[in-house]
Design a protein that fits this description.
Length: 430
């Protein structure tokens, strides 16, 4: 982070010099940390559209170019050449592992895939028809009650164990939430399987018959995990950091991240997008829905379109679109009506003045639901799959924050526009 440049703020006849910090990549950042102390004013930025909340070495997005890097490596290269657990190592420790380091990491994650047996009973307190995200928020939060030997955030060894436990157990919990909703028995993890195959096994196998995981489907699942693994300071990651800044334990922080991710403007968009594509149903109805998306009086938005940071193609959407074609081919699904609607909707929207002028492009969620549905997942499992993929990103960001000596509790300020001071009136005088 290079310093040297300054910005000058002129306020009520006085000048204030503010340091300008230069990142490795991306726009310069004006350092306003001393502004309130020196000038007695706050800055105002609802939605954090112009505010860097931290410095980070993990993920970089260039929204104008449509680029995403994990630790400097472009997402397209990682999606094509790497695999999820290697990417987890990269995000957590900063470098690609050598063969010994990878084997050791995979062994550590694999050895932690089972959950405490008592957790099976904990699940039974939920209604069968609960959304799996509701169950996940509860069960992941409850991990601090089951694994309280790894919640001392000041102990680096405990932080490490908690990280491995989360990466290993969240897929087991997501699969259990799914099985519970079906009324089927929980399926224990199988440690000879790779991470993605094990997740498919826990979701789709039953004790009554053997289940064979198709390696091509497992590869597609792994790529979905990789594409969702981190995305710098988005809403759920910022939630994890803010929760963690108070010293809350990592399981509580990740549960907070899952709760935030559930919203339809964030991780819940993949479910909402597939439901929208199904509702559109046929290519002929696309203009009707595009008109609704453009109508200021209609709250309808084109789900899977638009992004706070990407003002160009979301690079993850490009990989996802190719994957959708591959997976449907593999499964022998030809002329899938939802995929046809999606492709035509994308084509028309990308030529439409409204979407072009607002730089609205498909995001990662536009095609992911089509792949997940073809694999056999119900829409309610789409966001849990996003959550399990993102767990490594959340935990990497949380670890980075805790290890930073400058870390302090997050406490945004406000522009108060409520009533001025007034005196209480007793009930009989109102
Ligand atoms: N359909 C129609 N219009 C849209 C859409 C959309 N999907 N997205 C943005 N717009 C319009 C807005 O109405 C607004 O128009 P205006 O300037 O005339 O008022 C303009 O584009 C800018 O939109 P904002 O909401 O201000 O942009 P913001 O950066 O706050 O929102 C967001 C980004 C939430 C992702 C938004 O594009 C959206 O709601 N998209 C649909 C939901 C979605 O796909 N979410 C997934 C995001 S990716 C992820 O979390 C994995």
């Amino acid at each position: 982070m290079a310093e040297g440049k300054t910005a000058r703020l002129h306020l009520e006849g006085k000048d204030y010099d503010l340091a300008v910090l230069s990142p490795t990549a991306g726009p310069d950042v004006v350092d306003i940390r001393k502004l309130y102390g020196d000038a007695g004013v706050f800055t105002y930025d609802p939605g954090f559209t112009s505010t860097a909340s931290c410095d980070s070495t993990i993920t970089y997005i260039d929204g104008d170019k449509g680029e995403l890097w994990y630790r400097g490596y472009p997402i397209e290269q990682l999606a094509a050449q790497s695999h999820y657990l290697e990417v987890c190592y990269l995000l957590l420790y900063g470098e690609l592992p050598n063969p010994d380091q990878l084997l050791d990491f995979e062994t550590r994650v694999t050895r932690h895939t089972m959950v405490h047996e008592q957790m099976h009973y904990f699940f039974r307190g939920f209604r069968r028809d609960s959304h799996p995200m509701a169950t996940m928020v509860g069960v992941v939060g409850a991990m601090s009650a089951f694994y309280h030997d790894s919640i001392d955030i000041n102990d680096p060894v405990q932080r490490e164990i908690a990280s491995i436990r989360l990466i290993a157990k969240v897929p087991t919990i997501a699969a259990m939430a799914y099985k519970y909703s079906l009324g089927q028995p929980f399926v224990y993890p199988r440690n000879e399987l790779d991470y993605a195959s094990n997740f498919l096994h826990m979701c789709f196998s039953v004790p009554a018959e053997p289940y064979h995981v198709d390696p091509a489907l497992s590869r597609a699942m792994d790529r979905i995990f990789t594409l969702h693994a981190d995305h710098e300071q988005n809403a759920s990651t910022s939630t994890v950091r803010l929760a963690g800044s108070s010293g809350a334990n990592p399981f509580a922080c990740i549960a907070a991240g899952i709760a935030c991710l559930w919203g339809p403007a964030h991780g819940g968009a993949n479910q909402a997008c597939l439901e929208m594509l199904r509702e559109i149903g046929s290519v002929e109805r696309i203009p009707e829905f595009l008109a609704r998306a453009k109508d200021k009086n209609d709250p309808f938005r084109l789900m899977g379109f638009g992004h706070r940071v990407y003002k160009n193609f979301d690079p993850r959407a490009k990989v996802m679109k190719e994957s959708a074609d591959e997976v449907l081919d593999l499964l022998g699904v030809h002329n899938n009506p939802t995929l046809q609607v999606a492709k035509e909707l994308e084509r028309i929207a990308l030529e439409d003045e409204y979407f072009v002028s607002k730089k609205l492009y498909p995001n990662v969620d536009f095609y992911s639901g089509i792949i997940l549905e073809a694999m056999g997942f119900p829409t309610s499992m789409f966001t849990p799959i996003f959550a399990l993929s993102r767990t490594v990103g959340w935990i990497s960001q949380w670890k980075e924050m805790i290890a930073d000596p400058q870390n302090k509790i997050g406490r945004p300020r406000q522009l108060y526009v409520g009533a001025p001071r007034r005196d209480y009136k007793p009930l009989d005088q109102r």
